[in-house]
Specification:
about 350 residues; alpha/beta; TIM Barrel; 8-stranded parallel beta barrel; 3-stranded antiparallel sheet; about 15% strand; globular
């Protein structure tokens, strides 16, 4: 069925198709038929960052920026959802067109620029729905906030979403907000995380609950910079790292038909990102040695791709662009492949892991 829907949607401009697909899913949910898309796969729970995930396959941030489709997306069988990126104040994002397909490469380029309705609107929606799986909320700074004051934006957004999020993601790695990725620099990241953890300490006492915080990093960081970022997260007591966001590189996009589209500014996602993002997962995993859970995202278009993220050191995975090209069947394929991999590699009951 999805092949037919994709053929129709791909006749539309990408951003228009994105909205249309979500509205179709919402309509199916309202009619009570969307759950027919749910994979017939046994639960495969994962304990991580103080939460229980019904299965390790999640939705990456960016698909549902305003938390407008939480319940319909839950119908698809994800083990967790991440909504956003949301900023303290509403903003329109970058001028359109700002999404582009590279169909031969199973890829997208976007330069959306954190277009969203603001944290107040997102929180109102989250309060009005029931999410049956852990819900992550991805936060960023407004485009007109200088990096010197970015901590204020993150602290404000964290305060707004804290009572409603299962976990919160700090997005400092989107290439589509000017100078945002500079917040991954050594001094900048340390200063930002100091403000974030101080705010969390206040909020934890106020709400009597500890909300895990992850940081989403760029695939364009060097190995040394990835290790330094991981050290900063560990030093400040952060709970997870998400590897990775989109890339400004264009490796793996080689067809002549796609050359003009590939030259568009923005972050590249999909199949060409897979090797780069998986290498980042591996570098982080080898460095932190289990001390910091890793959520692997980037270029997953098959169950084998999802397993490769786990082999590299990820605990959980997230999908986005693969859903555009493969549809909901990708969720079931990834869940089955991961479950088989985990069953084959988990120690027998009653045995202890080797030292």
């Amino acid at each position: 069925m999805y092949h037919l829907a994709r053929a129709l949607l791909f006749h539309l401009e990408p951003e228009t198709a994105h909205v249309a697909a979500l509205r179709l899913l919402a309509g199916a949910h309202a009619l009570g038929v969307a759950q027919a898309l749910r994979p017939n796969v046994p639960p495969d729970p994962v304990e991580a960052i103080g939460l229980t995930f019904p299965n390790p396959v999640g939705l990456a941030a960016g698909l549902d920026k305003n938390a407008a489709f939480v319940e319909p997306l839950t119908d698809l069988g994800f083990g967790f959802l991440e909504v956003g990126t949301v900023t303290p104040r509403p903003q329109p994002g970058n001028p359109r067109p700002r999404m582009f397909r590279l169909q031969q490469s199973d890829a997208l380029i976007n330069r959306l620029g954190f277009n969203n309705e603001g944290v107040g609107a997102l929180v109102a929606r989250v309060c009005a729905v029931r999410c049956a799986v852990p819900l992550g909320i991805n936060i960023g700074r407004n485009a007109d906030t200088p990096n010197e004051r970015a901590g204020e934006d993150y602290a404000r957004a964290l305060a707004a979403v804290y009572p409603h999020a299962s976990y919160v993601t700090i997005n400092v790695s989107s290439p589509n907000t000017r100078d945002l990725r500079a917040l991954q620099g050594a001094g900048e990241l340390d200063a930002l995380l100091s403000q974030v953890v101080q705010q969390r300490a206040r909020l934890s006492e106020l709400h009597a609950r500890h909300v895990p915080i992850a940081v989403k990093v760029s695939p364009d960081l060097s190995d040394d910079d990835l290790r330094r970022a991981a050290d900063a997260l560990l030093a400040h007591g952060l709970d997870a790292v998400i590897a990775t966001n989109t890339t400004v590189a264009r490796e793996g996009v080689g067809t002549a038909r796609e050359a003009s589209v590939a030259s568009e500014a923005g972050g590249l996602s999909g199949r060409p990102l897979f090797l780069r993002s998986t290498a980042a997962v591996r570098t982080l995993a080898e460095h932190v040695r289990g001390a910091l859970p890793i959520i692997g995202v980037g270029g997953i278009l098959s169950g084998a791709d999802a397993v490769e993220k786990l082999r590299a050191g990820a605990t959980l995975v997230q999908l986005y662009t693969g859903l555009v090209y493969r549809g909901p069947a990708l969720i079931e394929e990834c869940r089955r492949a991961i479950a088989e991999y985990r069953q084959a590699h988990q120690p027998p009951r009653g045995s202890s892991a080797p030292e």
